[in-house]
Amino acid sequence: MDIRFVAGFAAITSDPARAKLLFRDTLGLPLHPPASEPESDYISSDDVPGAKHFGVWPLSEAAQSCFGNETWPDTHPVPHATIEFEVDDVEGAARELIYSGHQLVHAVRTEPWGQVIARFQTSDGLLIGVCFTPWMHEN
Questions:
Q1: DSSP 3-state of 73
Q2: Which of 17, 57, 111, 126 is the S-S candidate for 122 at Cβ 3.0 to 4.6 Å?
Q3: What is the pLDDT of residues 47-75, one digit of tens each?
Q4: What is the model's pTM?
């Protein structure tokens, strides 16, 4: 698998209001909800030095994205963070993960924001994505 870079990292939280106080208000990170969803509890920025994308992702939104339900299933460890690795061939990377014995949380798909991604978890619960993020290749 040829990983190009870390496309994003997000803390996953079951308490979005408290997480906003920490990451945005106390630490002073320039985090904001997506322009297309100003009422979202997901806050992020592409302007945190050293990170292509940093976010704070509510557990309910992570569960919705991964499982189509706002409740994280008991069959998977509850994640506290997610990291996404940029690859040129998401389908190939997903096949390689499966061949290596990893079970995908979900198959390769295109998210509403245009990112192509497949996710799996470590035994400790870290949510990992292999992805292709089109806007990170512009310029």
A1: coil
A2: 126
A3: 998 899 999 999 999 999 999 999 999 99
A4: 0.91
